């Protein structure tokens, strides 16, 4: 199944400024998350963010916060238990998911969304954990559960479908 921007929503999980320095390759993960959200905004794909106990972990990084249409403050690791389902447009059953930590909040949220009937694409280059082994195990588990593993670039080109897309040049500048 190909991703279509008209049926997708992006879920940005816990790109929090106090958490990111502890994430393996956190700067790269954050940069890819920002790139994904910018591309989504250019293509009118809604972007929903989450923040896990921001009183302790801080709010989302400023670039992520600016690009999210709504942000859910949560205490549950699985954002579905904290109100995320109320923010998701049901006419968009295909969710592009990225964030931290891959083996905790991102994993539990993606599995929760899948259990609710959503199709899940996990953006691996915009997903991180403190330990690389935890990230790899989470991605392996998600793949076994039927989630599609993709990159920011894969998402962008599938959404555009061709070089004739009116936003092609703008998005290409973000990717290169």
Structural features, described:
The chain has one domain: Rossmann fold. 44% of the residues are buried. It contains 8 helices and 6 strands, in the order βαβααβαβαβαβαα. It is globular and about 45 Å long. The two termini are 26 Å apart. Helix 1 packs parallel to helix 7 (152-160) and helix 1 (26-42) runs antiparallel to helix 8. Strands 3-2-1-4-5-6 form a 6-stranded parallel β-sheet. Strand 4 (94-100), helix 5 and strand 5 form a beta-alpha-beta unit. The longest helix has 17 residues, at 26-42. It has helices spanning 26-42, 54-57, 62-67, 84-87, 102-115, 132-144, 152-160, 168-175; strands at residues 8-13, 47-52, 70-74, 94-100, 119-128, 148-150. It is α/β, with parallel strands linked by helices.
Search tags:
Rossmann fold, 8 helices, 176 residues, 6-stranded parallel sheet, single chain, alpha/beta
Provide a short characterization of the protein structure:
The protein is of the alpha/beta class and 176 residues long. The protein has helices at residues 26-42, 54-57, 62-67, 84-87, 102-115, 132-144, 152-160, 168-175; strands at 8-13, 47-52, 70-74, 94-100, 119-128, 148-150. It contains 8 helices and 6 strands, in the order βαβααβαβαβαβαα.
Any idea of the CATH class?
Answer: Alpha Beta
Rg estimate, integer Å: 15 Å
CATH-defined topology: Rossmann fold
Cα shape: globular
Going by helix content, strand content and strand pairing, the class is alpha/beta
The count of β-strands is 6
InterPro entries: Isochorismatase-like_dom, Isochorismatase-like_sf, Isochorismatase_domain
Protein name: Isochorismatase
Organism: Marinobacter profundi
Domain Isochorismatase-like: 9-153
């Amino acid at each position: 199944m190909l991703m279509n921007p008209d049926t997708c929503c992006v879920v940005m999980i816990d790109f929090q400024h106090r958490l990111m320095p502890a994430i393996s390759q956190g700067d790269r993960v954050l940069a890819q998350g920002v790139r994904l959200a910018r591309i989504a905004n250019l293509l009118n794909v809604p972007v929903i963010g989450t923040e896990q106990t921001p009183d302790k972990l801080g709010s989302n990084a400023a670039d992520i916060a600016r690009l999210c249409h709504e942000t859910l403050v949560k205490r549950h690791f699985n954002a579905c238990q904290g109100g995320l389902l109320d923010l998701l447009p049901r006419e968009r059953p295909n969710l592009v998911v990225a964030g931290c930590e891959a083996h905790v909040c991102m994993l539990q949220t993606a599995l929760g969304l899948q259990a609710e009937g959503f199709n899940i694409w996990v953006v691996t280059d915009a997903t991180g954990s403190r330990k690389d082994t935890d990230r790899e195990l989470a991605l392996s588990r998600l793949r076994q559960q039927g989630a599609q593993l993709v990159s920011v670039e894969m998402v962008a080109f599938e959404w555009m479908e061709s070089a004739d897309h009116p936003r092609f040049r703008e998005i290409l500048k973000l990717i290169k």
